[in-house]
Amino acid sequence: MPQCALRIVIAQTAALLAVLAVVIPTEIEHWRTSQIAGANWFFGIYDTTIPLLLILLLPYFWLVRRPFLILESHRWERLKTWWTDGPTATVLDRKSVHGTLVALLLIAFTSLWMCYRVFDLSVGDREQLRLGDLPPAYHDEFSYLFQAKTYLAGRLSFESHPTAARLFDQMHVVNEGRFASRYFPATGLWIVPWLWLGWPSLGHWLAGAATCLLVFGIGRELSNNGTGFIAGMLTALSPGMALFGNLLLAHHPTLLGLFFFAWSFLRWLRRGCLCDVAQAGLGLSWAMLCRPMTAAGFALPFGIMFVATLCGRLTRSASEGRTSPDPRLRYGLVWPQLLAMSLPLVAGFLMLAIHNRAITGSMTTSPYQLFTDIYTPRHVYGFNNVVRGEQHLGPRVLDHYDRWAVNLTPALAVENTKNRLLAAWQWTVGLVPLLAATVVFLVGHASDRRWWLIFGAVASLYVVHVPYWFVGISNWHYVFETGPLWCLLLASATDLLARNWLAADRPRMPVWWGLLVVSAVAVNVTDFPPLWFPSKIEVGANEIAFPRRKYQAFEELLRREVTRRPALVLVDADPADRHIDYVVNEPSLSSEILRARYPVAGWPLERIIAAFPTRAVYLFHAKTGELRRVGQPGNRETQKGE
Fold it and tell me: Which ranges of 49-201 would DSSP assign to H, the alpha helix?
């Protein structure tokens, strides 16, 4: 048996054993709990239930060597030709280009349709209330919106309130003389045009669709059109992509930059063109301006490859001379390549320095770091964060939110990493297909060594986030950018297995593998009562809907009960709910209704009322939902001086 074929057999066996090690214990526990509950085992299936049934059918698919269908038509042959074409195809006719355009349109449409499904989901008791019509769900979203509104006003920051700044401390917003989001500037810039159009999430939808197209381009670059199509469609159908596409977070703008970088870099490795490496630098610089640590983690293996490649080319150029027939050496020395990659990054760092200086007064201190130092020192990056943070507690700490942090130990870091990995697989395609694909990739290897950059980016992203105590939104948002990378690895394993099964005269095995993947996607995006319901995408949307409905109820309460305008609403937070914070204002602090914190040290009620003589003052108790006007003669709240 050829060594390559033996390696594939070992890879298949290892993948099957890994899957069985997960599926069997999970389904035993599933059966046990269903018996206790008096329910049918197959109703309300787990991620492992359909894979278990497919594994039971595996001998049939393996042993029967007759194909399901005999496809010998001209159209089928043309599809096979397009599917196996790659970036180095010698024949590129009009039909091939047409097929690629159709694939790209299908991927983009699927991505946009998935985002719209989440946006259009009915929530609450009123069917006409859609998820996309509700306010943001997370503190971070409000901060990014704050940033976009600041930029839309033509400013990098606003001044803090001149006399009562402490009342307007806002989550993830720096309020130390300058009033500005703590986050890095590119996400706010990305939101600006869509906010101006009145549809801020549209930009994230488009960034997601563009990312899916770039995933297709990467898969095609590394293998063929078929691999790219599978990876692009799986990314477009990912429930995590659709859910986060409706959250105003930094992930989708970051994805756009990172995958433009990866696609351009991989093309540069093949072609050696200066324009490719310049595009890679631009993409990475944009991602850095969105999420610097994520950009660094993603790019680390690419950076190692870049340096190694340039060193190798420099050595060959010196030894062979500039007349070498190798087209990758046509630029002679490596300095143009180095500058093309470096200059966009230098420009990005310069933009960050200007941004930092405008908000914190220091080119080297970011608003992100300043916010952590002043308001949430226990949230600091690294192990033993709570112990280290407690040594730097100050008067401005948001104590209740700051105490949410858990002290990071090696054991907790391992647990977080495991949870992030499981959640990433579940929210991308599915636990079983991605587990099997990962084992096949690692053991069976890929024909193009550039594939290891994809796996290296996955591993690096996990490593750089190990020293953070919080596992992440939905248990994975810190490694969210690995989602399309997992889809690429699954597509690579699919291509590798299908080619080897067909060569080994196992024509039904690709169908079995396809059922394994398609069933995972079906559970993610569809309901099929009583077998599986609700779909994962609905589960995730309902999690987002819970805080959004609370914010919506607060907005409706203000519209209904705050009858005297302009007004100042003092928010007495619910100590049992640290993740809902109603103190959200416009950057200019000029709204008809301002929201302020209460109580604040040194600011009794009488002083607040005196500081805002032109505004009616209301007090909202978040725990009870009670809203009342205060500051009127004889009002008991004023008399108590709360």
Answer: 49-56, 58-63, 74-84, 94-119, 139-152, 185-196
